[in-house]
Specification:
This protein has helices spanning 22-26, 46-52, 70-86, 135-144, 149-159, 166-175, 181-188, 192-205, 211-221, and strands at 7-13, 16-21, 31-36, 41-44, 90-97, 104-116, 119-129. By secondary structure, the chain is of the alpha+beta class. Helix 7 crosses helix 8. The termini are far apart.
């Protein structure tokens, strides 16, 4: 098991690095974890223990298969491998089921490469659970840590010409807060199908293949800072 230093070197994009302190990430109000390339936990905050319903004080050295079902473990493995291959921060929609086959979590996970001497040694992950964590508030916290800032100017230049209708801004506003198409429809007096239609158009505008990628690109663009209902 690795001996963790007080600072964590992370990759925000290929050949772009930054550092965070363990103190900074340990105190975050969401799930925070470091796993090595084999998927063994090397660090976690208290929120991870609560989510995993672990009776122990630490799960360091353990793998996801000790807490989650096989489908969830495969999802985690594929996400981690993609992040390490792409060598950049990525956002995923998460759907996790504990081994008890009862407790299920849906939400958003933000993962990025964890480096040592500029060599990838694992993953730094942040997970937000729907109906428990405020997506927008916690994304702002991560933004303040500098996780998005290194890419923001590039993304702003790419997306500064995108025109959004008032309805699209409303839908993005609620999507960034983790709301489902059904919920957004109720809030805006629209059918779920209409909301999904707008989301598909937004994916086209931002060249996104999924809702999680749309959230990632909207946040990088800075457009979210000017959203008003």
């Amino acid at each position: 098991m690795k001996s963790l230093e007080s600072k964590v070197e992370i990759g925000l994009a290929p050949i772009k690095y930054s550092t965070l302190t363990l103190e900074e990430i340990d105190s975050l109000p969401i799930l925070v974890y470091l796993t090595d390339k084999e998927g063994r936990c090397q660090f976690h905050n208290e929120n991870v223990l609560i989510a995993c319903q672990s009776a122990s004080q630490s799960i360091v050295g353990m793998k996801a298969k000790q807490f989650y079902d096989a489908k969830t473990c495969l999802q985690i493995k594929e996400q981690d491998e993609l992040v390490m291959h792409q060598q950049k921060l990525m956002v995923f929609e998460s759907n996790a089921l504990l081994k008890n086959d009862i407790t299920q979590f849906q939400g958003i996970s933000i993962k990025l490469p964890w480096y040592q001497d500029k060599k990838i040694i694992g993953i730094l992950g942040f997970s937000m659970i729907e109906k428990k964590h405020s997506f927008s508030q916690n994304l702002e916290i991560l933004l303040n840590l500098g996780l998005f800032s290194s890419l923001s100017m590039i993304q702003k230049n790419l997306y500064h010409d995108i025109y959004l209708t008032h309805r699209e801004k409303q839908i993005i506003y609620y999507t960034l807060r983790g709301k489902s198409a059904r919920f957004i429809g109720r809030m805006l007096f629209l059918s779920q199908r209409t909301v999904e239609y707008h989301l598909e158009n937004l994916k086209i505008k931002f060249d996104a293949n999924s809702k999680s990628e749309l959230i990632e690109k909207v946040f990088h663009s800075g457009i979210h800072l000017n959203l008003e209902l």
